[in-house]
Amino acid sequence: MIKKTLFDKIWDSHVVKKIENGPDVLFIDRHLIHEVTSPVAFLGLKNRRLNVMYPNLTFATADHNTPTINQHLPIKDPLSAKQLRTLKYNTNKHDIVFWGLGHKNNGIVHVIGPESGITLPGTTIVCGDSHTSTHGAFGAVAFGIGTSEVEMVLSTQCIMQPKPKSMRININGKLRDSVTPKDVALFIISKLSTSGATGYFVEYSGNIFSEMSMEGRMTVCNLSIEMGARGGLISPDNKTIEYVKNREYTPKGENLSKAIEYWSKLYTDEGAVFDKEYNFNSSEIEPMVTFGTNPGMGIRISGKIPEIDFKKDSSSSYLKSLRYMGYKIGDKMIGKKVDYVFLGSCTNGRIEDFRTFSKITKGFKKADNVTAWLVPGSHRVLNKIRSEGILEDLEASGFKVREPGCSACLAMNEDKIPAGKYVVSTSNRNFEGRQGPGARTILASPAVAAAAAITGEITDPRNL
Amino acid sequence: MPYEKFTILESSGVPLEIENVDTDQIIPARFLKATERKDFDKNLFRDWRYNQQNKLVKDFVLNDRKYSGKILVAGKNFGSGSSREHAVWAIYDYGFRCVISSFFADIFKNNCLNIGVLPVQISAQFLQLIFDSIKNKPKIKLKVNLVEQEVSIFGIPQKEKFEINPYKKGNMINGYDDIDYLLSMKSEIKNFANKRPF
Ligand code: SF4
Questions:
Q1: What domain count does chain B have?
Q2: Is position B165 within any domain?
Q3: What was the pLDDT predicted at A312?
Q4: Domain membership of residue B28 as a residue range
Q5: Separation of alpha carbons A45 and A155, rounded Å
Q6: Among the four A76, A421, B62, B142, which has the fewest Cβ within 10 Å?
Q7: Domains in chain A, please, with CATH?
Q8: Nearest CA residue ID for atom 6, ligand 1
Q9: Mean pLDDT of the region A266-275
Q10: Which of residues 197-216 of A touch B (CB under 8 A)?
Q11: What is the pTM for the complete model shown?
Q12: Does ipTM surpass 0.90 in this model?
């Protein structure tokens, strides 16, 4: 029998047609849409006089462009308001479920998919957002697509893509104290660089990942795209099944038993061959921070900004990046000044991230020089922050919690970090201007963000 | 959306000798609020073209009169980051039909092929040769021949082949897109969908 990887099993079972010397026609089980990358796709349908083929397989939320305070008031920015109106109109017209602002299921698209039971093992999931890779945590083949492809999925429930190559990343052993899933991911990206996995779909394997919570797995899979991978995935196990069952859109009763039987076959066969394989040593991983303008420019928090590695960067790009950040080769990251802290995004905006953050800040006060934006990934997360008493703890330390959305992750709404200011951010991209024109981003875990929020500088959470 | 067919392109190139250019640089998120595909070219490389006072940055290549043409020549790992197709719309609508680099990010490359921008991946050495040639002679012409899958520089003997998926090549030459293809197989898709467990 042919030995197959987990990825092969899922991808191959969704191929409607193989085009010779061309891409595969791939069937899509779940399609998530939001206000920013869908309007032109709907316009395309209109121009071609097409309908949505399977409206019940597409789910819409408002997240990228939305304010994170006073969501009950009309949106001030006319362009943002128009985008939201357009999404409401389009979903209404085509009979697509839409969770707008204030709806109990509303939130960041990659946070609400799993929460609502839309994300299931063994499925193909796409969305016009590159961090769709998040859903791979459930053993799904999930990846970001462009607007033309959104139009394809709406009109035919398929896209056409060549099958990516396969990569496996193995990490076994024990993680050190205070090392979170975010650190594991930033560590991997720093080793592979931002293009090291381009063309590949990555499976994460080893006890480090199987011992992670579902939320931790989502953080890891979320960041797959930052090393160029199409997506990343982890084999589903009992933890996965426990998480998905009893959610709004999860199969029920007999269908659930059938589904579980199918999910239990979703693993990489022993002896299956990957196009590329990496092994890392768990004891090498420490809490991480980035110092440059791409997620591959990460180092352990206690480290110094390294010399140029000519295998990875040219000197002009590297120095340009450091100039933008206002840093120099040889600088220590510990003690660097911090102006803003952002806890949120589909990378680290889930309840566990708020638990980690508040556990560290409890008993301390927010530093006076720090502006902190704490933005839950969804209404469900916000409700848990309230019901678990985290809100009180955070408020006692001088923090406020905002309403859900993408917020400063991409700074499309008002949540922009001012030019020249430093932000420790739990999001996923430290590109120039990503969090506001001229903003300087240091990517880190919720634990490192919490430590920075109370000391006002980059601080090792283990030394508090 | 239909796009111009692509067979052979002869044009000078604009040299963007920077690596890891992500789509947030190509078009910053704050310009993604449109509900139509309109005016994205105006904000192509916005934060590199204009300073914080909204003044043109004179030495940025797009603002440098020396350089022009329908070919963008860029450093390796071009188009990483966000999946926004708006980045390619901005490039196309600005007037570029082809991007040459030694490495492209995946989603960006797909998006290019879907809307009619040809991504041409060549070796680091040949890319350097193109950069150097343009530096020497800013209006030097490049020839991108999709039919032969070959790039050359006028007056210089070296040439290089590039790869493209044959199906996508056909699409580019004919100006087709994938939706036309998918629509033609709707009944097959329906049969497939009926067999899906969930
Ligand atoms: S939080 Fe950031 S990365 Fe996640 S969906 Fe929103 S914009 Fe994309």
A1: 1
A2: no
A3: 76
A4: 10-141
A5: 7
A6: A76
A7: 6-161 (3.30.499.10), 165-236+267-284 (3.40.1060.10), 290-463 (3.30.499.10)
A8: A406
A9: 97
A10: 198-199
A11: 0.95
A12: yes
